[in-house]
């Protein structure tokens, strides 16, 4: 029982990071109906920005952990949002009126470009940093096994809950959220009613990139090591989470991320760790066979 509780904590932590990235996928899909396959590499870029910022703070002899985390988050969100804006401006906007295949190919090309740029500028080796948050809280000191939640895990879960609540409020209660929902339903009609469609889409890309930046900082703090290839696998897992929960649904993206994190954690603990990805994608296939729109997705209804 204690071991299962520990895996639950680990799974929720991993799933929270997947969910943050998945929200970026589902927001972009909801507003333009296309998948931003460069989003995983935006997350990878944010992780490298976080490593660079932590290195600068260490050289400046900054020892305050709250100050360091706040500074790294601000810097990572700022630069990663700029990357998100650039991806939309160069890879999507010029091709918005073309066939659906052209932006898809453009996004894949942007993903490869970001991977190789980071590899050339930062090197192919992994980039480690010293532990930022050590220790934790012992929840259950069972005989022979202690259930512990680390400070980094608490940070990740609490940050995810706060951001999920903030984004849900923004989408449902603010003027910008109404503009997003209007563009999702009918971009042409939204433009006729005075909504700046280009600006709304650009801001959506930037918000998705900002969430990826937070996930990148959390991954850097939790694992303490990054490399130029982490964006590919994390992006695939986050995209899977978005599809599993229902592409276009913010709660669905977070639910999908949590489910994938729990599946990976429990499968690795009790069965075969090397087959955890097989289990994840197998369950995805099963869900899509039984419910093609995802767990919380709604089937598209076209009026004629």
TrEMBL record:
GO cellular component, one term: plasma membrane
Bilayer topology term: Multi-pass membrane protein
GO biological process: D-alanine transmembrane transport; L-alanine transport; L-isoleucine import across plasma membrane
Keyword Membrane set for record: yes
Stretches of the chain forming a coiled coil according to its record: none
This protein's record includes keyword Electron transport: no
Parts of the chain that traverse the membrane: 12-35, 42-60, 66-87, 149-171, 203-223, 278-297
MF terms (GO), sorted A to Z: L-isoleucine transmembrane transporter activity; L-leucine transmembrane transporter activity; L-phenylalanine transmembrane transporter activity; L-valine transmembrane transporter activity
Listed PANTHER family: BRANCHED-CHAIN AMINO ACID TRANSPORT SYSTEM PERMEASE PROTEIN LIVH, HIGH-AFFINITY BRANCHED-CHAIN AMINO ACID TRANSPORT SYSTEM PERMEASE PROTEIN LIVH
Listed name of the protein: Branched-chain amino acid transporter permease subunit LivH
């Amino acid at each position: 029982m204690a071991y299962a509780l520990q895996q639950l904590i680990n799974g929720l932590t991993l799933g929270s990071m997947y969910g943050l990235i998945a929200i970026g996928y589902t927001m972009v899909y909801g507003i333009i109906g296309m998948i931003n396959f460069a989003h995983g590499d935006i997350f990878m870029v944010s992780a490298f920005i976080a490593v660079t910022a932590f290195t600068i703070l260490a050289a400046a002899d900054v020892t305050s952990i709250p100050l360091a985390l706040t500074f790294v988050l601000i810097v990572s969100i700022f630069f990663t949002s700029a990357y998100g804006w650039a991806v939309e401006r160069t890879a999507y906007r010029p091709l918005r009126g073309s066939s659906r295949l052209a932006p898809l190919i453009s996004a894949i090309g942007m993903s490869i470009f970001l991977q190789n740029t980071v590899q050339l500028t930062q090197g192919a080796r992994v980039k480690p940093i010293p532990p930022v948050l050590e220790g934790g809280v012992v929840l259950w000191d069972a005989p022979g096994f202690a259930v512990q939640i680390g400070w980094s895990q608490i940070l990740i879960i609490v940050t995810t809950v706060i951001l999920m609540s903030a984004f849900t409020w923004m989408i449902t209660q603010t003027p910008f959220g109404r503009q997003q929902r209007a563009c999702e339903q009918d971009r042409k009609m939204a433009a006729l009613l005075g909504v700046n469609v280009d600006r709304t889409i650009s801001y959506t890309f930037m918000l998705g990139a900002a969430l990826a930046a937070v996930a990148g900082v959390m991954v850097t703090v939790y694992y303490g090591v990054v490399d130029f290839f982490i964006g590919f696998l994390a992006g695939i897992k986050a995209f899977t989470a978005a599809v599993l929960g229902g592409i276009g649904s913010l709660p669905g993206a977070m639910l999908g991320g949590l489910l994938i994190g729990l599946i990976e954690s429990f499968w690795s603990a009790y069965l075969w760790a090397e087959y955890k990805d097989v289990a994840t994608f197998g369950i995805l296939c099963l869900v899509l066979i039984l419910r093609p729109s995802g767990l919380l997705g709604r089937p598209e209804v076209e009026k004629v």
